[in-house]
Fold these 2 entries.
Entry 1:
Amino acid sequence: MTASSRRILRLSGADTHSFLQGLITNDITRLDAGLVYAALLTPQGKYIADFFLKADGDGVLLDADAEQADMLAQRLTMYKLRADVTIAQTDLHLHRGTGPAPADALADPRHPDLGWRAYRDAPQEDDATDWDTLYVAHLIPQSGVELTPDSFILEMGFERLNGVDFRKGCYVGQEVTARMKHKTELRKGLAKVQITGPAPTGTDITSEGKSAGTLLTRAGDEALAYLRFDRATGEMKADDATLKRIP
């Protein structure tokens, strides 16, 4: 996923912060400290979209996957009812990198090795970072690959990625998310695997002939996989590839 595959929306109006606080998985007051990573969920606690938020004067920038931006704007518009909130497209472009952070950049809150993000008037042309390798190394899910409409964010590691706050109060999908946190042990989730041999993204993973998960982003001889943990204890297969979970 390149920086050009992102779109930047801007939310403004007197009710912007309270509006977002009642919808998203993270605490909007964290904007005072930098970028906020969060998601919008269904009432059943399933993933709709993930995004970054940045304070922007009296408004908030929302950095979203380009394929989700229109849908996300429509969802937010549906929720705002009579709230004083305006949702607009911008002409800003995402810039990102892993070297020294420029003066206008903020740290990616998901993991220190993911570097910085900045928002500028012109497209980025100089980023040669191998992002997939970083995503696999640090178990970072991506929208449309690991993150799908069937995803529960705790199975995708959102607590580890600073994408959910359990003290902020109610938001859409909060009850299910809190129940998964406090009352259940996760039996499925995102994991890293060692992989030998060819298999495309989306291939079913099996263990002793039983379904064990799905192969996702790959980088060299390692990959991300959505696994059923009780069946991912030994050698697994995905098409012509052999896999083993990395602890």
Note: DSSP finds four helices and 14 strands in the chain.
Entry 2:
Amino acid sequence: MPAAQIDTLVLLLRRTLGDRVLGVYLHGSAVLAGLRPHSDLDVLAVVDGPTSHIQRKELVRELLEVSGGAAGRPVELTVVRHDAVSPWRHPPNCEFLYGERLRAEYERGVVPGPPRCPTWRR
């Protein structure tokens, strides 16, 4: 388990989103005993309110440095608002989504707005 990278991600989220962070959770192969050498880290962060454009821009900037390559495993980060997932509604709305498949857009300066969570299926 890449503990140092996980610690870095938690600190990054706390620094960027502050007290809005209610919880940070690993999911996917990292917790299902299927983590392989090239697996990404699936991280879910639950927050108690909306994220600002400035916060999303800062998340992109920092995630570009700590995800993949020499920085460690690729990161798949989904940020959801607590009130969007409790009670559960499908599909939930995301506040922020980061994954290596979006890196080229983020490197061009795209700052994502709150998207629907396209990675979650019925």
Note: The longest helix spans residues 3-17.
